[in-house]
Amino acid sequence: MTNTQLTLVQIDNYGPWTVTPEPRREMDLQTLQSRLFADIAQFVGHRGGYAFFTRFDNMVAVTNGLDADDHRLLQESTGNRYPVTVSLGIAVDANPVVALEQATEHLQHAGSAQDRERREVLAGTPVEASADDDVAIAHFDVNDATEKYTDRLNEFDSFIQIEQGYATLMRHLREEHGGLSFFVGGDNIIAVTPDLDADAYRSAIDHVEETVGVDLKVGVGQGETAHDAGMAAKHALEECRHRGTVVEMNESES
Ligand SMILES: Nc1nc2c(ncn2[C@@H]2O[C@H](COP(=O)(O)OP(=O)(O)OP(=O)(O)O)[C@@H](O)[C@H]2O)c(=O)[nH]1
């Protein structure tokens, strides 16, 4: 059974900082945000986790394999190298959205995202023992996106199609199962999910096709960390390509 550890990363008091002493150049903010995400992705990734940029001022990471000291080091290193600091809320649950809700509550109880006094909060308890099915990752991909969109439409119209598919899928998995889906570039969506069977994925894919006409396939993997589960999912997705199937489940990868 899954036991997903999620960390909410929130930049402290970022809104006021972006306009103090006057509005800062937008491309400077974009550079800061994308570099901070890159550093967090690298830090978490080197320890077997996955990080997702979501809204950039708030990011979500799957941190099975990272303990409290790792989280403290991430905060220290960020504070040393950036003009902003980050607060971290950690929680663990079989259902990803429940874990994220608890991680979020830890930070909300410590104060507002725009509270000048609330800085570098570290709240919540990482998982004690691990198992090889703690994390489930579903890696979705749009069928023939290159032929249908990239090679035929302008980039904006391709983007609309992909984003429509993403919006429909993210809502469906969130509402039906508590799964959290993240757009990761190109035509790819990675979802952190609870234990779901192939039928649940098939009906999610059918729902997206019926609602917005975007065809998806998915590889699903489980593992001790997001990296292990994600690699198993990528191999399962390759199986979909070989077999022409829309769902492949790959239970574990060591
Ligand atoms: N983040 C991420 N992006 C990927 C990955 N594989 C492919 N992409 C992105 O997806 C785009 C399209 O590649 P594919 O999905 O292989 O192409 P396709 O035309 O949809 O072909 P099929 O998936 O075989 O139907 C690429 O340009 C990349 O941006 C991956 O493993 N991770």
From TrEMBL:
UniProt record similarity statement: Belongs to the archaeal-type GTP cyclohydrolase family.
Class of this enzyme: hydrolase
Entry-linked InterPro entries: GTP_CycHdrlase_3 (IPR007839), Nucleotide_cyclase (IPR029787), Rev_trsase/Diguanyl_cyclase (IPR043128)
Gene Ontology molecular function: any one: GTP cyclohydrolase IIa activity
Pfam families for this protein: GCH_III (PF05165)
EC number: 3.5.4.29
Protein name according to UniProt: GTP cyclohydrolase III
Function, in words: Catalyzes the formation of 2-amino-5-formylamino-6-ribofuranosylamino-4(3H)-pyrimidinone ribonucleotide monophosphate and inorganic phosphate from GTP. Also has an independent pyrophosphate phosphohydrolase activity.
Taxonomic placement: Archaea, Methanobacteriati, Methanobacteriota, Stenosarchaea group, Halobacteria
Keywords, alphabetical: GTP-binding, Hydrolase, Nucleotide-binding
